[in-house]
Input
Amino acid sequence: MPASRTTLRRSLAAAAALPLLIGALASCGYGSQAKNDEKKVAAEGEKLSADTVRLGYFPNLTHATALVGDQEGIIQKELGGTQLKVSTFNAGPSEIEALNADSIDIGFIGPSPAINGYAKSKGKNLRIVSGSASGGVKLVVNPDKIKTLDDIKGKRIATPQLGNTQDVAFLNWISEKGWKVDAQSGKGDVSVVRTDNKVTPNAYTSGAIDGAWVPEPTASKLVSEGAKVLLDESTLWPDKKFVITNIIVSQKFLTEHPDVVEAVLRGTVKTNEWINANQAKAKESANTKLKELTGKPLGAKVIDGAWPSIQFTNDPLAATLQAQADHAVKAGLLKEPDLAGIYDLKPLNKVLKAAGRSELADAGLGAK
Output
């Protein structure tokens, strides 16, 4: 039988109210589902060969290409209908483990973990496909105890982790000073104290350490506590450039989804361009993302001190990666690695060529 007018009106009213009810529920933000729905809406356009790409990076200013590219939606825009899923890490080894376990596809990471990961897998788990950042590492000290570089001898200096990029750099610097330190224990003419970056500021204020060789923003956090910058690591390198952050990809994902890798690299190239053209906005964007990820933004004094020392570049600075590997071997932390094939810059150079830019070199360490 035909519906009565009253019943029909009630049905129409209920149908009209349904979208409002759904919108109200979504606005309440019920757990991760609400966030996932937002990301699905953000992923618009034609889907590439993968439904999703899983990206890993650190909540760290030396990973600002990832912070800003994620925050501003620049990487997602290049991916179109392919959804960007992000995971964050606090240490290189855990990110390498995630890549090996197929938990992420692409990651931003320092040179030492990339070298170690490639060497341990005998060249089978990753490729470096782009650079991301240079610099941003400083030796900061207690000015009451240390006034010159020679005063470092006999003092307690922190590095983030045994065998990490800054640890290797500091051990190499100590060696070039002619001082002796056992790499594993950190004991010798200088006491190398391996300390998580989160703990280092408290260790400094308590007097447990006399200084630290650390990346930003940890260095500037120490400066805000009264420390003094004694050495910027960039001054030790040709043209004051050395790789601090690379972009890596699992070889499996690169083989199966080259279009997705290219899209991510288009996003990172455009992000670096935007950062370098909009320094103040980029700094604010990175800090907004840091607040989201860590619950607290960096103070103005800290981020203003840290930001200028980092250069954002697509160049992987491949020759400096080889030098850092040599330093790790010299320190006894790494057996002589065969780095042939660690780079595959073809996707990056394709992106750069399409943008009318010069191609970048792999220092003879490229995949054949």
Notes: Confidence is low (pLDDT under 50) at residues 1-42. DSSP finds 15 helices and eleven strands in the chain. The longest strand covers residues 126-135. Residues 217 and 306 are 6 Å apart (CA to CA).
